[in-house]
Design a protein that fits this description.
CATH topology: Cyclophilin
Number of strands: 10
Number of helices: 4
Radius of gyration: 15 Å
Order of helices and strands: HHEEHEEEEEHEEE
CATH architecture: Beta Barrel
Number of domains: 1
Mean pLDDT: 86
Helix content: 10-25%
Largest sheet: 8 strands, antiparallel
Shape: globular
Strand content: 25-35%
Distance between the termini: 33 Å
CATH class: Mainly Beta
Length: 205
């Protein structure tokens, strides 16, 4: 069973109207965080749809950031896919190969979801099961403000640990690809969206 985000269709029906309205609103090109002056490690992703750049926030989610960076340094994400794509919601990847085989991960980490870093458009957060402390390698990028995923709204929340600073148009393009059902999973891109390379930039390599 794949690690998952709560589905809007199944878990957040009271919010569908609000989320639909959000999809029609012009959104900023990158997420706004509580601390605009924060500066952290940067990671560049090269995908089959293009490139995007992430800035991470160890000041808010130190264990989550270090976990993510270790997967990047290990080359874990290279050759994995965005296996769950829902327009007007998020794109999720970091755990499966193009044939939807699950990759072996390290042990789960604690949930560092914080009200100081909400699930806004362009932020990256950890995917998990119903167990708050079950995140391993899978992550998702919000393509709209998903307030219902924040800490304290419907429980522990989902841990945001960075944001897209360049290439949000690539994230939006991924969110718009055609999807279907495959190997018991829904919202799978018909044409695999592959992470070709993930690199830690600068002095954080």
């Amino acid at each position: 069973m794949t690690r998952y985000m709560p589905s809007r269709r199944h878990l957040v029906s009271p919010f569908l109207a609000a989320l639909a309205a959000l999809c029609l609103v012009s959104m900023p090109t990158q997420a706004q965080s509580a601390d605009q002056d924060a500066s952290g490690p940067e990671v560049r992703f090269v995908t089959s749809q293009g490139e995007f750049l992430l800035e991470l926030r160890p000041d808010v989610a130190p264990e989550t950031v270090e976990n993510f960076l270790q997967y990047v340094r290990d080359g874990f994400y290279e050759g994995t896919v965005f296996h769950r794509v829902i327009p007007g919601f998020m794109i999720q990847g970091g755990g499966f190969t193009p044939d939807l085989a699950r990759k072996t991960t390290r042990d789960p980490i604690i949930n560092e979801a914080s009200k100081n870093l909400p699930n806004q458009r362009g932020t990256i957060a950890m995917a998990r099961t119903n167990n708050p402390d079950s995140a391993t390698s899978q992550f998702f990028i919000n393509v709209v403000d998903n307030d219902f995923l924040n800490a304290g709204v419907r429980g522990p929340g989902y841990a945001v640990f960075g944001q897209v600073t360049e290439g949000m148009e690539v994230v939006d393009a991924i969110a718009g690809v055609e999807t279907g059902y495959a190997r018991g999973m829904r919202d799978v891109p018909v044409e695999p969206v592959i992470i070709e390379k993930a690199t830690v930039l600068g002095n954080n390599e």
